[in-house]
Amino acid sequence: MTINPMSLSGKNIIVTGASSGIGLATSHLICTLGGNVAMVSRNKEKLSVAQREMPEESSKAFSFDLRNTDKIPDLVSLILAEVGPIGGLVHCAGDFAVRPLRSFDPKEYRDLYDLHVTAFFMLSKAVCTKKNVDPTGASIVAVSSVTAISGLEGSSTYSSVKGALISAVRSLAAEYATKKIRFNCVCPGWVNTPMLDRIKALYPDLESFDLAITKRHLLGLGQPEDVSNSICFLLSDAARWITGTSIVLDGGYSL
Ligand SMILES: NC(=O)c1ccc[n+]([C@@H]2O[C@H](COP(=O)([O-])OP(=O)(O)OC[C@H]3O[C@@H](n4cnc5c(N)ncnc54)[C@H](OP(=O)(O)O)[C@@H]3O)[C@@H](O)[C@H]2O)c1
Q1: What pLDDT sits at residue 233?
Q2: What's the confidence (pLDDT) of residue 9?
Q3: What span, in angstroms and rounded, lies between the C-alpha atoms of 116 and 24?
């Protein structure tokens, strides 16, 4: 019998931001590797279109606005009742924000922080209980960004919430190692998804976007699969000795 260390067979994994881009590619790969996926995102219609592409027996959809952070324990209870104990969590839901310092807005920043960071803590808190977590252990992956480690004009609010995830997984990894729960981040460069299309539209023309962003990626812009491959590696037993770290996947952007 051949053993596949990347297999996710028997694991129930929550993916937020599962209706689009990196989260959708991750949901697909989880199913291909034998896992079950609980797909979470905000827009119900978009989510059900995305779920229709997935194998019915190994995917379930949960429409939820993750800025409602107080209600996240209820969401996780619902997921648990439908899929069983949780062996993995990928917090991928998010959106980019362009905000120069002169127009910093505290309310907008709190919303951004809630979606990227508070939701991550609340999801992790709900998963990491004896009642909810898979007794064999779990792997939790937060999707950060290369902007957390490499500056970009106008992106200080976005990069700071992504930086908070990198710091959070280090301490959470230390807190939960003895409970067989691993915490890690991935830090992607720019990836071809609907989010990147929205960012492109902020530049005056394609040439200035290429100069500021595309050309900095020595291996070209990423595809969602370039990120989902590493996320699924971290979810799997192939990464059983990896915790508290952040993997940079950026085609050379941050060199
Ligand atoms: N694309 C890149 O270049 C890039 C680079 C580095 C990091 N990232 C990070 O990767 C993650 C995924 O980005 P992507 O490029 O795949 O973006 P995307 O294609 O726009 O997908 C974003 C996902 O997040 C969900 N979402 C947004 N706000 C939500 C909310 N309040 N509650 C629940 N779900 C919500 C969206 O669902 P709805 O449409 O239903 O709202 C969608 O499923 C993000 O955290 C992003 O910051 C992206």
Answers
A1: 98
A2: 97
A3: 17
Stretches where the chain sits below pLDDT 50 are none
Query: What sign results for the dihedral spanned by CA atoms 195, 37, 8, 180?
Result: positive
Q: How far is the CA of 10 from the centre of ligand 1 (A)?
A: 26
pLDDT of residue 41: 98
Top mutation candidate among 69, 117, 193, 253 for ligand 1, by most atoms within 8 Å of CB: 193
Residue 139: the pLDDT is: 98
By residue count, the chain amounts to 255
Atom of ligand 1 nearest to the CA of 23: 16
So where are the chain's domains? 12-249
For atom 42 of ligand 1, the residue with the nearest CA is 17
pLDDT score recorded for residue 178: 98
pLDDT score at 2: 76
How far does the centroid of ligand 1 lie from the alpha carbon of residue 2, in Å?
A: 36
Q: Which of 14, 20, 68, 186 to mutate to test the pocket of ligand 1 (most atoms within 8 A of CB)?
A: 20
Pocket test for ligand 1, best of 16, 22, 49 (most atoms within 8 A of CB): 22
> Is the domain defined by 12-249 classed in CATH 3.30.1360.70?
no
pLDDT at 3: 84
Quick: pLDDT tens for 80-132.
999 999 999 999 999 999 999 999 999 999 999 999 999 999 999 999 999 99
* Distance separating alpha carbons of residues 176 and 202, to the nearest angstrom: 41
Q: Is 61 helix (H, G, I), strand (E, B) or coil?
A: strand
Whole-number Å distance, alpha carbon 196 to ligand 1 midpoint, is 10
Token couple for 34: 């034998």
User: Hey, is 204 helix, strand or coil?
Assistant: coil
Ligand 1: atom nearest CA of 146 is 6
